[in-house]
Amino acid sequence: MSFARAADGEEATRTLRGHLPTGAPDFVYLPVEVPAGVHEIAVSYRYDKPEVPKGTPGNALDIGIFDERGTALGGKGFRGWSGGFRNSFALSAQKATPGYLAGPVREGTWHVVLGPYTVAPQGMDYEVTVTLRHGPTGKTPRRVYPPERAGGRGRAWYRGDCHLHTVHSDGARTPAEAAAAARAAGLDFVTTTEHNTTSGHSAWEGLWGDDLLILCGEEITTRNGHYVALGTDPGVFLDWRYRARDDAYARFARAVRRAGGLVVPAHPNCPFVGCQWKFGYEHADAVEVWNGPWTADDELALAAWDNMLVSTDSWLPAMGNSDAHREPQVVGLPQTVVYADDLARRPLLAALRTGRSYLAESFRVSLELTATTPTGGYAGMGETLRARAGTQVDVTVKAEGAPEGATLRLLTDEGEMRTGPAPSLTWRTTPSLATYVRAELRHPAKEGAALPGAMAAMTNPVWLGGGAG
Fold it and tell me: Where is each Polymerase/histidinol phosphatase N-terminal domain found (predicted)?
């Protein structure tokens, strides 16, 4: 699309129509020649949704935009992404639609980016309309980011939800509504993790406080799985436009760490298109074992995570997050409860990385797991109890706020070793018998069900002998 320069107060509109066949590229870039003197760029789009056979994906088309600085992978030209959640957006120096970044509309070649998420057998017909409004550029407001520390209680247990969405991607809650929901859930911290955009980083002004820390992040939604960039520097954009076969994931995992964050594969066994994790776990710092209300997907993720624990060199701490988008999805169901030196970004991330944490369905539930020796040896979740192979080890798990009829389980690399009713359970073992011990608190199983009851809380492992930690 090409536009001519116009007088202040005038606007010009162009429409482009096209067709995408099945097997279209993951991303289609439509160039827009923007002249000098543009105040605002507005984009709308639509596409057809023909009937498809049952069990066949239909048409779904995402959209975003890059400015005159280009579309290079990981480059600086990113100006926003709304996926398939909006059919229009606009941005100027002064303001932008949620999901997009305010800033000058400079002269040069911009690109509207289409992401054909799924394409029907008939293909996809689309129409993109771009409107340029001419006038003075205006001034971009200074972005205000959350502080890195809240009041806290010093070294203590802190409850957090590190995967949730607002109107800045495909959520329905405003940041204010999400913050209120976090406080109602008894959380001490949350992470803003919008899909493929950083616009939410500066959307929480006035919503944090001594009782609630806001961390910055991004849910990076590739075509071969999603991962949370957790606790990154405010404003740092991390690209998502690659597959496992493209050999780009390791590069961006390193970029997450350079930005001070953690790499956390999200809902790794989710059955939806593009959601299952295909990149492996070599470059991850933790894994989201529990995503939202407990389902069979989480049961699969738990089993895969437990299998990782046999390798003490490559285990990853488990996390639980709500991935809440809208009512009635509950912020803080589940939540990760972490023992950190302070309610601050770096201490929290350090504790999450070591697995000094457990997962719970709500603030009403607490879980404690310890391993001790007769000579005073002690270790908790994410720690190693240093002891010889034949040393007597007493393992104790205690639950507070357990649901009625709930069952405690103690599991090792051999499987379930002890089970009993809440609120407490003990077991005597040795490091020669168990490399690690972890605990679960389960709701009663439904009559006739093939799976155990839903999870109410679970711990990261305590390592015995010379294992990890």
Answer: 160-224
Backbone angles phi, psi at 422, to 5 degrees: -65, 155
Q: What is the residue type of 444? A: P
Beta-strand (E) ranges in 93-153?
A: 108-118, 124-134
C-alpha distances out from residue 447 to 41, 444, 450, 451, 452, Å: 58, 9, 9, 10, 10
CA atoms within 13 A on the CB side of 373: 18
Can you give the C-alpha Rg of the chain in angstroms?
24
Give the chain's count of helices (H) and strands (E).
4, 27
CATH architecture of 156-360: Alpha-Beta Barrel (3.20)
Considering the segment(s) 366-464 as one domain, its CATH architecture is Sandwich (2.60)
Q: Regarding beta strands 60-66 and 156-164, do their DSSP bridges make them parallel or antiparallel, or are they unpaired?
A: unpaired
11-134 carries CATH number 2.60.120.380: yes
Mean pLDDT per 10-residue interval, the chain, length 469 residues: 94 98 96 98 98 95 98 96 97 98 98 98 98 96 98 97 98 98 98 98 98 98 98 98 96 98 97 95 97 96 94 86 98 98 98 98 98 97 95 98 97 96 97 96 89 95 76
Predicted TM-score of the model (pTM): 0.96
Query: Distance from CA of residue 321 to its chain's centroid?
Result: 8
How far is C-alpha 258 from the chain's CA centre? Answer: 18
The H or E element containing residue 219 is strand 213-222
Residue 245 DSSP label: G
